[in-house]
Structures are given as C-alpha cells and as structure tokens.
Amino acid sequence: MNSPVKRRPTGQHHGDLRNALLRAALELVTERGPHGFTLAETSRRAGVSVAAPYKHFADRETLLAELATSGYREQRSRFAEAVSGSDEPVEQLASFASAYVRFAAEEPALFDITFNAGLDKSRFAELASAGEEVAALLLPVARELAPEADDAFDLLLRVAAAAHGLAVFLRQGLFGVGGGALTETEEKAARTARAIARERAGA
Amino acid sequence: MNSPVKRRPTGQHHGDLRNALLRAALELVTERGPHGFTLAETSRRAGVSVAAPYKHFADRETLLAELATSGYREQRSRFAEAVSGSDEPVEQLASFASAYVRFAAEEPALFDITFNAGLDKSRFAELASAGEEVAALLLPVARELAPEADDAFDLLLRVAAAAHGLAVFLRQGLFGVGGGALTETEEKAARTARAIARERAGA
DNA sequence: GTCTATATTCTGATAGAC
DNA sequence: GTCTATCAGAATATAGAC
Questions:
Q1: Which residues of B touch chain A, with CB atoms under 8 Å apart?
Q2: Is it the case that residue B104 has pLDDT exceeding 60?
Q3: Residue B1: what pLDDT?
Q4: Which residues, other chains included, contact A165 with Cβ-Cβ below 8 Å and sequence gap of 6+?
Q5: Contact yes or no for B198 and A195 at CB 8 A
Q6: How many Å apart are CA A157 and CA B142, to the nearest integer?
Q7: Chain A interface residues facing chain B, Cβ-Cβ under 8 Å?
C-alpha cells in the first residue's frame, strides 16, 4: 500500500518540490490515467505531506492543467520537427500523423491528459493558447493542399482524427494493435494521412 | 444535492430493479462519464438504498461491464444495418464509418463505456465476445477489398480508427467540431473511409 | 430483495505550529 | 515551505433485521 519512495525524515524538501510534484504526477497518470490521479498519492511519491502541494498549486486541477499545457508544447515541438523534414505537403502531413502516434506511445500520460482529463479550458488561459499553437503550426501545411480556409481545416481535422484513432487503439491494445506495434502503427498513420491528403489533391 | 427521483417510502421496488439500475447508470454515465459513475449515485437515482444493487450485481465493475456488453451489441446491430444498404464494399465501409460516428453521438455513454472505462475483458467473457462479434461482422466486408487476411484487418483497422478519431473530436467539441455538426462529421467519416478504401483498391 | 447501520478507506482542502 | 492535525464528504462493500 505504501510507495517505494524514501521519505525525507523532516522539514525541508530538496530545492524544487514544484517540479518534483509535476514529475510524480506524470508518473502517477502514466500508471492510472488522468482520473486515477490524486494529489494525495502524488504527495506520497514526492515524499512530502498532503498539505505541501498547496503552496505550489492552487488545487488539483491546476496541477493537471500545467501538465496538459506542457503536453501541448511537447506536441508542438515534435510536430514542428516532423513537418520540417520535407517540402512536400502530403509527406508533411504523413510525418505529422506518424509523430502523433509516436507521441501517444512515448508520452502516454501527456497524451491522456491533453485529451481525456476534461479540463476546463476557460479556466486556464495558457492551456487554451498552447493548444491553439499546435493548430497554428499545422494549418499552413494543410493550406498548401487546400487554399480555402475551411477546406484546409477539414483536411487537417481528418488527418489528425485518423492519427488519433490509431493512437488510441495502440494505447488500448484494441483490435490487436498490441504492444510492440509502434512502428507499424506509425506507418498505418502515415499511409492513411497520404490517402486523405491525396484524395483532396486529386479532387 | 438530492436526486429529483421520488423515493419509494419503504420496502418493495417495482418489478425490475435490475433494469432500473442499468438505466440509471446509463444516465449517470451520460452526464459524468464512466469515471464519474458510482453505485451510490445510481442507487439514489433508482430510489433505493446503496446496498440494494449488490443483490443484482457483484460489484461496481460488473454493472459497468454489462452496460459495455450492451454497447457492443448496439454497435453490431447498427453496423449490420449500415452495411446492408449497399453491395459495394467501399460504400459499405463508408456507411460503417458514418454509423460509427452516429453511434458515438447518439449513445455517448455506451460509446464511452466501451472504449474508455478500462474494463478488464479477461474478467468478463461476454464482454469480450460481444466485442469480437462486432469485428466478425465487419471483417468480411474489408475482405472483399483485400483478400489477404492481414490486409483486410489493416484496412478495417484504419477505417475504424479514422471514424473513432472523428467521433472523439465531435464528442469533445475539439477542433471546433462542435455541437450540431453530426451530419457534417458523418460525411467527413464517410469520405475518409472511401479515401482509405480506394487507396487500397487502387494499389 | 430491500433496508438500516456500519466498517473501512480515501479524497480535497484548511488552520496553525515551526 | 513544510509539517501535523483535522474536517467534511463520499465511496465500496458487508452484516443482519425484516
């Protein structure tokens, strides 16, 4: 029932409890999902009392929102790199789809928090803007294939949705998209993205 | 804080508490998601004590698993009808994708429970087999486009994943896939399914 | 089959000492 | 900034009366 983390006998924590809590929370979400996350267990894992986190975060949701924000930033960084590997918009979208799946596999906690924690974005301005920056990075790519704004949005949405579905199936081991199938699933995502993008280009 | 449901003053519930509990649970999941579901609140809504459900269900998870099973059965029924509307396999997959999105929109609780409740399928044999029957219904359709078993599986997986992603985005209002956009989202799903299926047919 | 009552456990959050 | 102590609330599940 107890965590395997050593408790500091008293008083002072090492320099950066704030970040230690964020790390512990991420680990906890990895194991139990966003809904299994509790401040109490996070405190235990960081080796502090349950009251300590309240000096660093207003409440449970605020800590979670901070993780979600960093999740969107990590996404933006990964997708920016994926897209930078080619000049061809179809290949850029394929790369994005692949990176999306990889992100979900390598950072399952961040992935779950961004999409499945039910955070109220109107309460956390930074979270909302971090999410919008991800879209802002990708829309110009879609726009190269679909100059009309609505069409570009539709294209990006469908590519992202396809990648999202594969990422979820991979994560849940559904449909036999099991454990070590990351590379295969990335390829499926890339192939699907190409099919969607080309249908548009050909139309 | 109290439920709007009238309590029966004492003793006997009407004939079918078991089904009344299932209905109340479904309603509760619709409002709060699978993780917000509790036996206690379900009991309150059905107008019985918190102990009553244990005469009908072994525990909380068993009730949830029963709902999930009925969710898979509803899926199979809907998808069977969708697929029956055409002889053309590409159109059948497009119809399936559309029905998938519609199911998620019209039965959000069942949708969430089947995919997001984290049920242990090894504990509930009927749940596992109900899920397999959905796949068994659709695989022959994919097989008409991809005679090789692995290819058919891959095709179905990618179509289902695309529909799943759109369904999730619709449900969460993400990417501006907001409230009344059901018909549009169904069309997106159908179009994406066609793009995936045709890439295969053309290859 | 349903109730009342209870044991147990966990949570978020606050007050006040150090 | 961290601790101890505590409150208030809620949940799962069981025992035993009716």
A1: 33, 35, 115-116, 118, 135, 153-154, 156-158, 160-166, 168-169, 172, 174-177, 188, 191-192, 194-196, 198-199
A2: yes
A3: 42
A4: B160, B161, B162, B163, B164, B165, B166, B168
A5: yes
A6: 24
A7: 33, 35, 115-116, 118, 135, 153-154, 156-158, 160-166, 168-169, 172, 174-177, 188, 191-192, 194-196, 198-199
d(C-alpha A184, C-alpha A178), whole Å: 10
Q: What is the mean pLDDT of residues B8-12?
A: 57
Burial of B64 (0-12, 13-18, 19+ CB in 10 A): buried
- Note the pLDDT of residue A4: 45
CB contact under 8 A, A161 and B154: no
Mean per-residue pLDDT, B41-62: 97
| Rounded Cα distance, A177 and B164, in Å | 14
Closest-CA distance of chain A to residue B64, Å: 16
The band of A177, judged by pLDDT with boundaries at 50, 70 and 90, is: confident
Provide the pLDDT for residue A203.
Answer: 54
How many secondary structure helices (H) and strands (E) does chain A include? 8, 0
| pLDDT score for B173 | 82
Angle between helices B125-145 and B182-202 (to 10 degrees): 60
Q: Residue B41, CB, less than 7 Å from strand D?
A: yes
The domains located in chain A, with CATH, are 17-55 (1.10.10), 68-202 (1.10.357.10)
d(Cα B117, Cα B27) in Å, to the nearest integer? 15
Q: Residue A194 is inside which H or E element, if any?
A: helix A182-202
Measuring alpha carbon to C1', the residue closest to nucleotide C10 is A40
For A38, counting Cβ atoms within 10 Å of its Cβ (0-12 exposed, 13-18 middle, 19+ buried), the class is middle
pTM over 0.90: yes
Q: Which residue is nearest to nucleotide D14 (CA to C1')?
A: B51
